[in-house]
Amino acid sequence: MSKINFDECLYFASARVNRIVAKISDDQFKKLGLSSTAAFILMYLDTGDAINPSAIADELSLDRSTVTRFLDKLQRQGYIERTSQGRSVTVALTKAGLNLQTDLKQMWSTLNDQYIELLGADGEQTLRTLLNTDFGVLKANNG
Known about the structure:
This protein has helices spanning 10-29, 36-44, 53-60, 64-76, 95-119, 121-142, and strands at 80-85, 88-93. By secondary structure, the chain is mainly alpha-helical. A hairpin with a 2-residue loop joins strand 1 and strand 2. The longest helix has 25 residues, at 95-119. It is globular, with a radius of gyration of 18 Å. Keywords: DNA-binding, Transcription, Transcription regulation.
């Protein structure tokens, strides 16, 4: 039997990098008792406007059911409020959610600094650019 070279598999290579990147991010945001996804949802909501959950899902490339699950938790924690008008639901930050924004943005900046420290400025920019470009190509061809 021949040995499988997992390094030749895009899924394996991207998942391996994602696990490390996600751990670094999760370690940063857990200081506030939040997952990375919850933190990014809260930062996205910092527009001053109420936002539809579908817009959150689209912007953050998450399944709608995932967004709903995170919004449920963030609402229980008192960081967001939902408003329903008929079948339409919007989400907005509460005062507690607004009060987190400075810390969240500082943690995001620190997180990006950590990636630059690990990969070098050129390496971080190259990887981020490649991932964003390839994401666009994959999304356009895979929905």
